[in-house]
Inverse folding.
């Protein structure tokens, strides 16, 4: 129901609860209150790229790949499909009286933390390193999942993790992120603010860490002054799982559960993932929290349950059920999104694959690995199309496909009687017209604390290098002499400088979802003309990075990095060529309207991601490099000219001072409009032009 | 080349070696002797069901499934395909100068140990519990792999593990099998003797254990008196890997490597898998072994290398290469063999699946598990068709396929935030017209010492029960009420009494190879009319079994078991019905010719495994129950009568006395000819008739 009515109903219902009943509803495993007709409810649901951890669902590409599409329209379609499946599963479970974890409507996604350092293990859960791209993708996702029915919100979206949370994983429970006010507002808070303003997400999740000593789940400054007062957030706050206990166990800010719970609730954290809020009973007895505070928190929580229609006889989604889960249409969408997420980083002309090719050697530890399709926080699809599967399913019948693994994803100390296919890989490479070298990482090598195998680093990467086993195999394959198309499957940037030089083509495929293999072959074959763009910088070496635990933005991400990247943010090749002409900018009060003309000067239909970068020339508070302020993905047929407009809100152009305050930029603003970053000269296609203009606000 | 010439060439070549060079050639990693033009050679290759551990190959069903086909002709085709791939890989590797483990021509298969107890973890590597079936399948396999070219043996087959080797895995290195002479000859030696006589395998592998205190790799009694003198074996003996060190490390028969090596070589073990024979230098210095003995051993080894054509300029298989590996024809053969290996144990009429079925719920931990396809000692296919894949690939487009796992293969202690699909399984079962419950084990739960996860039992099963997690899921599914077709994927018998009662059908699929999912659906849909038969007894309970480490055959396997099995050896249903008539037996000197008439009295083409069981009525040395003495798999069209003959050699009918000597049975012999064991009354199809006759030899 509508917010006002839901608020009223929540107030009435909560008024009938005892204090103990109220407190019980603030745990993620909220028990039933049968005398009031309230069923049990578990608030915990995951849906970064499809319904997660709840069995059957369509698994879309991992968020870093969704971001690489730079396609807000398709992103919204993905979120609509995901939320249809989520509602369907809720209907099925609740009608069977099942109200366990991952069977509800309150979803703890998207993860909009800034992927500030490529070593962060969970970076692939995010939309990359740029606040504006993150904000735009998040708005599309939240819009899609929360639905457009004014009478009933479809799902609750939860922006996480508030705020400045991006590793290290190994010490996340006790970590204090030291963040300048400028970095906080210019980078870490930016997408939260943008998305709260544009998409009104129902919830925000507080992070494990503290920021300048302020605990993210228990700070009035962060949750009241900034989140609610400055950013205008009107929903509820949930703690990350176990984060309330971190206050006493790791941050040593409080003495125990009663004190931690009281501090969190008093600071504005209404819901506890975990069991720390069991300490609220004692906290109340100790006078640390008032019943009024508890009541207000529980009212917020029940308001959202009313808004979601949990107590309504009918909602617009009651007809959804398992026949709407993992449907052919959703699979097709997953394939399309995966194809658009793929970034071609190098192409010496070998792509798209020639019809003359009669044999393909598919080699590498990720060639036939099902796990890399799914990323993390994933559901379980009923179809898993690996790279090998994709080649076999789609290649012509007269093409011989050879497969061997060649090496493990990392060097393993295995007995000599175990299978070793290194030599076979070289022989098959020799026989084939082309090698698809399927390398990269997997979601266990880069992942969440406790979830990843590389326990030394607690889930984070220790280096940007491709693992030794794979480098060794690649170098041996190079010596064979057959052209190599490298398909890198990873959720983050790798520094594969040598591989880039010696490959005929490089295809960055992320963790591409259940239909990944088909999508990759769509790009290889040219059935889909690639249009993905990097949402993160690919650096040349570990040496390019500041210390991982240093939260200063200086030297990080394309906006601040002063070196020469291997591949820059926003970069990605097409099989078509695009030519920009006749840029004009119209000042429309609160926004600027960019009139843009792009011609597809090739004989192949294609898609271009038009990117607008801005650099405020006369403002000392401006970030070092031009920053993304607008983009649009457009389809342009061969030989055709696209004329269109992109609107850029002036607020997007504002710069942030040392106090974190934003202001109209001083001096003239230089705009670059093209298919890439303006400073990406070294790797920009020579025939992709960029148009420029300057104005003052 | 031919044996005589090879023997001569070997003698000449070995004569040029120093003593040290000779000794070096008795290790499985034999180094090159460049001055004599001898390349390095690693003797270790595995090929239980296709080229193993060597990268790309076609993976056929695990041997227990091959045996369940009761199809010697198809078995030979499988062995021919496997040996084509093996030769192809040898050609590719050796022409690239690569001579590592799993790149040669000397294969350490088949495993013809008797699967005397269903708890043995490696039982699925064998052809089951019956000596005659084992012998027949082994002959077909060895014939197929060794080839029919008199000038050049295609591969070396190695019968293993000589002898009386079948667990326990956990203590195999120091285990003494206490075996009566009668059991030794009647059961444990039988298939070795049969196969050596019929197929002349190039090699025999000695087992880890001792037999009545005699070490299998270092006993003159076993290796000379029995193997060579009695059984007529003319090839070479290789030790199981590390088995020579077991002599001093675990059996405590010798003091160290020199003594163990000397004892083994002096007893007739020419080749050492491992490095114990490095001790031969010291053994020679100590006077424990003579140069003449060493020379004779090395001559045997080089004779086989010459026979394999390793030193020839040309062999009949030189044209084979990777284009003969994992071919469509081999995949088709793998699918056909898998379909014929599948045993339908129960069918209330639900199979084959009706065209009216519009939705199928594929549920269970083995439904979409790639690992269970491959068994152990497997290669790496380029296609893996799970049960789920098979249903999706072959089912009509208008049929909705639901999938969820429902439970893990064993009960795991997992955090509550991990995916749990138990409830989803029940909901999907409710929605579907039929449930395919895909249960069973996997090759990690039943496997080899060190290879399996259930380390408590060292790879063996501790119980015949289906794991609790799966039983619990099944019972919940039963309550839903949708008909359940249980597909049990395991390499051995399980005691799933309750599941059998409550399932509409039971399909035993073994570890069905890379094409398993297609083959299973072939049987479910009726595209293939099932004809597989159990090569092992399915008991009702653990209580039916003697102690696992007791090697007495009393009470074990269908020949000695006095209880009522759940499903007997030889059992398996068809969608057709067969009627036996007009049996007559013709005495032909050394053999009996059975004239048999079988009518397919159904309206569906089918295959029948005609089985001949014999019981010598007046001989006190006879095994307790009628034993298999002949079988033949025949295709019979609907309504047609098959007339044909099966020859049974009289020696097959001989009985074994307490001293292990065999003799012509006294009294009359009663023969039962039919589709099942004669005493399998309780589960025999009422309409499958059996014909009987009696003769004296």
């Amino acid at each position: 129901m509508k917010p006002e009515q839901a608020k009223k109903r929540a107030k009435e219902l909560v008024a009938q609860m005892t204090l103990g009943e109220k407190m019980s509803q603030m745990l993620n495993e909220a028990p039933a209150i049968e005398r009031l007709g309230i069923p049990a409810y578990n608030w915990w649901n995951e849906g970064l790229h499809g319904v997660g951890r709840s069995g059957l669902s369509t698994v879309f590409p991992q968020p870093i790949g969704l971001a690489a599409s730079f396609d807000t329209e398709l992103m919204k379609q993905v979120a609509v499909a995901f939320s249809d499946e989520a509602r369907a599963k809720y209907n099925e479970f609740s009608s069977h009286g099942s109200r366990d974890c991952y069977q509800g409507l309150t979803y703890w996604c998207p993860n909009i933390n800034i992927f500030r350092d490529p070593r962060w293990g969970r970076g692939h859960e995010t939309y990359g390193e740029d606040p504006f791209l993150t904000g735009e993708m998040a708005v599309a996702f939240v819009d899609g999942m929360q639905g457009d029915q004014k009478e009933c919100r479809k799902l609750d979206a939860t922006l996480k993790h508030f705020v400045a949370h991006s590793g290290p994983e190994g010490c996340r429970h006790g970590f204090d992120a030291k963040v300048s006010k400028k970095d906080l507002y210019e980078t870490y808070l930016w997408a939260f603010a943008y998305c709260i303003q544009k998409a009104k997400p129902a919830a925000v999740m507080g992070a494990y860490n503290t920021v300048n000593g302020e605990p993210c789940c228990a700070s009035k400054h962060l949750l009241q002054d900034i989140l609610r007062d400055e950013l205008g957030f009107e929903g509820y706050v949930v703690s990350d799982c176990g984060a309330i206990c971190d206050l006493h166990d790791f941050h040593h800010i409080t003495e125990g559960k009663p004190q931690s719970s009281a501090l969190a609730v008093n600071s504005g954290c209404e819901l506890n993932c975990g069991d720390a809020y069991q300490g609220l009973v004692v906290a109340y007895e100790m006078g640390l929290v008032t019943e009024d505070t508890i009541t207000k928190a529980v009212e917020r929580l029940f308001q959202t349950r009313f808004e979601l229609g949990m107590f309504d006889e009918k909602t617009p989604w009651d007809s959804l059920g398992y026949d709407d889960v993992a449907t052919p249409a959703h699979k097709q969408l997953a394939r399309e999104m995966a194809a658009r997420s793929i970034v071609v980083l190098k192409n010496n002309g070998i792509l798209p694959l020639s019809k003359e090719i009669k044999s393909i050697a598919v080699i590498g530890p990720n060639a036939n690995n099902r796990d890399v399709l799914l990323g993390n926080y994933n559901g379980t699809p009923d179809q898993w199309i690996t790279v090998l599967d994709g080649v076999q399913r789609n290649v012509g019948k007269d093409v011989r496909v050879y497969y061997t693994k060649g090496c493990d994803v990392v060097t393993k100390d295995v007995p000599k009687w175990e299978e070793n296919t290194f030599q076979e890989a070289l022989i098959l490479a020799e026989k084939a017209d082309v090698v698809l070298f399927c390398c990269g990482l997997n979601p266990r090598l880069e992942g969440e604390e406790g979830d990843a195998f590389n326990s030394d680093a607690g889930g984070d990467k220790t280096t940007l290098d491709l693992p030794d086993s794979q480098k060794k195999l690649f170098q041996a394959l190079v010596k064979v002499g057959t052209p190599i198309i490298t398909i890198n499957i990873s959720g983050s940037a790798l520094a594969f400088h040598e591989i880039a030089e010696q490959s005929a083509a490089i295809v960055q495929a992320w963790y591409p979802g259940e239909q990944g293999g088909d999508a990759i072959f769509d790009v290889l074959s040219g059935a889909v003309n690639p249009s993905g763009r990097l949402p993160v910088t690919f650096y040349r070496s570990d040496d390019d990075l500041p210390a991982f635990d240093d939260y200063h933005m200086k030297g990080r991400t394309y906006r601040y990095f002063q070196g020469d990247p291997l591949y820059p943010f926003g970069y990605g090749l097409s099989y078509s060529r695009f030519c920009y002409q006749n840029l004009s900018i119209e000042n429309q009060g609160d926004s600027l309207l960019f009139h843009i003309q792009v011609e597809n000067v090739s004989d192949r239909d294609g898609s271009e991601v038009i990117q607008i970068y801005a650099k405020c020339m006369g403002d000392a508070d401006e970030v070092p490099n031009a920053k993304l302020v607008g983009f649009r993905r457009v389809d342009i047929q061969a030989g055709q000219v696209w004329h269109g407009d992109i609107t850029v809100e002036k607020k997007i152009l504002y710069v942030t001072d040392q106090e974190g305050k934003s202001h109209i930029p001083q001096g003239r603003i230089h705009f670059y409009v093209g298919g890439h970053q303006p400073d990406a000269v070294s790797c920009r296609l020579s025939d992709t032009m960029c148009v420029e203009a300057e104005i003052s606000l």
Q: What stands out?
A: The first strand of chain B starts at residue 29 and ends at 30. The mean pLDDT of chain B is 96. Chain B touches chain A at residues 44, 53-56, 92-93, 96, 98, 100-103, 241, 322-323, 368, 370, 380, 382-383, 388, 392, 400-405, 416-421, 423-424, 426-428, 431 (CB under 8 Å).
